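EI: anyone free to look at a 287-residue chain?
SC: sure, send it
EI:
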Amino acid sequence: MQTIKHIYPLPTAKAVVVVMVIIGLILGLIFGLASSALGGLARLLGSTAAGVTLVNFGLLSIIAFPIIFAIAGFIFTVISVWVYNVLAGFLGGVKWDFSNGTLNKLDIVSVAKIDMGIFGVFALIEGFLVGGFALGFNVVGAVVGAIGGLIVGAILGFIMGAVGAFLYNVVASLVGGYKFTFEGRGIKNINPLSYAKVVAVLSAVYGLIQGLLSLTLFGALAGLAASNPAFATVFASSTASGSLGIVGVLVLVVVNLIIGFIAGALAAVLYNIPAGRNIGRIEMELT
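SC: here you go
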């Protein structure tokens, strides 16, 4: 297996910025058109001030969304890559089996360790801010929040990383893994169909898990309502929703499958825009 020893932050962040600008522009246009339409309707109904405000908000969205998305994407990517590189130096980087242009398998333990570190670091920061500034600055609260966030984040990160890598390996063995092309040390192209298939199946699996958990919860609530009439009215809506049963779970799986396929294909296509034009791409050092 190869190990991702180091990820280069600047070229990776530039690729993310281009993708986020495009996404921000699309969302900005959607919000802009919707706001302008509502503004025009408001003016027809006699509310001139509200109409002008909505139209202005629509125009502002088209300009602001790409800028905000780009800045947020750049900052988050640089921080995440920096954290990865630091953790890789201590814990070892992510290991994968990449051959013939296909990511065949991920090493579960290496992914889990890196996710443990990344989740732990971000949860530590969040815990420090929430614990220290929720009710005015409090040193004890900040320390307790940071330690608690670190522990919880690390545990959740390890579990999620291990589960995610395991599921990827299963899906890759069934439908094929991600296919991408290297040029030098960077990923020049991601095959949209391969990416879409894997994301679609993973999304469907997560939808199945979510559906089964909801079904179990509704079943427990139904049982509680049946055994205790005092709860019957309170949980009536939950019981009714739970009656959809397997049909609801299947619908959730299918919806997640479709959305996952579209989102995966779109993500790969958007990434290929800056990567194929040497504007920015994910660059890494492998050993």
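EI: The chain has a mean pLDDT of 84.
SC: 👍
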